[in-house]
Amino acid sequence: MFCSAVVGATIGFLWWKLLSRRRLHGDTGSLSRRAALGTVAVLIKREFLLAIVGAVFVAERSRSWRRCLVQLWHRRIFKMAPLHHHFELSGWKEPRVVVRFWIAAALAALLGLSTLKLQ
User: Of the N and C termini of the chain, which has fewer Cβ atoms inside 10 Å?
Assistant: First the structure.
């Protein structure tokens, strides 16, 4: 029931967001949605699966692994954080970055779904 409510709220938000760009998600909505996903992952004992499915979000938000890479090779790997700015500074246009992240998110979701039975 809880998951259905979260999915319904997300679909409702996206429906109105696509029609007009006046609606903003904000920190409260995004943090509560992430907390709900994390809670559900803990309750069904699939925490690692959440990291696989949300690989794009993990890569976009994780700054500590970038620092480790810099310390490992003693040079800067990425031009800027978060990760999508690195690609924009490399000459990619914003729509291209967004579509590539969509593809990566779809592949991560498929990988997560394929490993669901393995756990």
Answer: N
| 31-34 long-range contacts, CB within 8 A, separation 24+ | 33/6
Spatial separation of the C-alpha atoms in residues 51 and 31, rounded to whole Å? 16
CA dihedral 82, 10, 25, 94 (to 10 degrees): 40
The whole-number mean pLDDT for each consecutive block of 10 residues of the chain, a chain of 119 residues, reads 88 74 65 85 87 83 66 70 80 88 91 80
Alpha helical stretches, state H, the chain = 2-19, 26-43, 47-53, 55-61, 64-73, 83-89, 94-114
Domain boundaries, the chain: 1-45, 46-119
Tokens of 45: 């004992």
pTM above 0.90, yes or no: no
CA–CA separation, 45 vs 1, rounded Å?
18
